[in-house]
Amino acid sequence: MENLDSGLLIALVYGGVVLAAFWLAMIIWAYRDMRSRSRDGIASILVGIMVAILTIPGLFIYIMLRPRETLSEAYERSLEEEALLQEIEEKPHCPGCAQRVDPDWQACPTCHTRLKRPCAVCNHLLELSWEICPYCAASQNQYMPDDTVINTSRHISRRAPEPPAISNKWLANDPTASADSASDMPQYVDDNY
Ligand SMILES: [Zn+2]
Ligand SMILES: [Zn+2]
């Protein structure tokens, strides 16, 4: 009988210790879980206290009511949303009609605004404002009038003044030199020697 009593006592103590450890683990798990879902430290402590008092039903209640996302999940989601937004914003828009356009397009299909032009030498697409090609360093000024798409666009009238502006630049040099252009040339040759 004594052996049985001590055996029962050991079993009871063992069961008690296991239950206590389980209870403690439940509280710690609930507290940590709440910490990963909320920045509110008091809420985490309250969850721990609730699980400590209500034990397993308290844990179920907590699992049912806890915030759906952990803080890191929420952060990741906000990063993804931001990246998506940025992608949408970074897509180029037509300056004429604000429609979304492809970076490879030379003209807007909706309003025919010229968007880009190919380099006359290497055919890379260039911004209209670029005067030299960044790929092959070829000057783009003299190739402007050859642009067939510009000539068919109804925006030619707005873009047309550009080539004269370039030729005006040449002319601007000319009037100063035109009077004595003959004397200008030899001077240039002299400078070289
Ligand atoms: Zn357009
Ligand atoms: Zn080029």
Structural description of this entry:
This protein has 193 residues and is mainly alpha-helical. The protein has 2 domains: 10-68; 92-175, no CATH class. It is 62% helix and 3% strand. It has 7 helices and 2 strands; from the N terminus they run αααββαααα. The chain has helices at 2-37, 41-65, 71-90, 148-152, 156-159, 162-178, 181-192; strands at 116-118, 125-127. Strands 1-2 form a two-stranded antiparallel sheet. α1 (2-37) packs across α2. It is rod-shaped and about 110 Å long. It starts with a helix and ends with a helix. The model is unreliable at 145-161 and 176-184 (pLDDT under 50). The protein binds zinc ion (2 copies). The site of one zinc ion (ZN) has 8 residues, from loops.
Write the layout of secondary structure elements.
Elements: H1 2-37, H2 41-65, H3 71-90, E1 116-118, E2 125-127, H4 148-152, H5 156-159, H6 162-178, H7 181-192
Antiparallel strand pairs: 1-2
Main beta-sheet annotation: 2 strands, antiparallel
| Radius of gyration, whole Å | 39 Å
Q: Determine the fraction of residues in helical runs and give it as a percent range.
A: 55-70%
Total count of domains: 2
Distance between the termini: 126 Å
Number of helices: 7
**How many strand elements?**
2
Strand content: under 5%
Oligomer: single chain
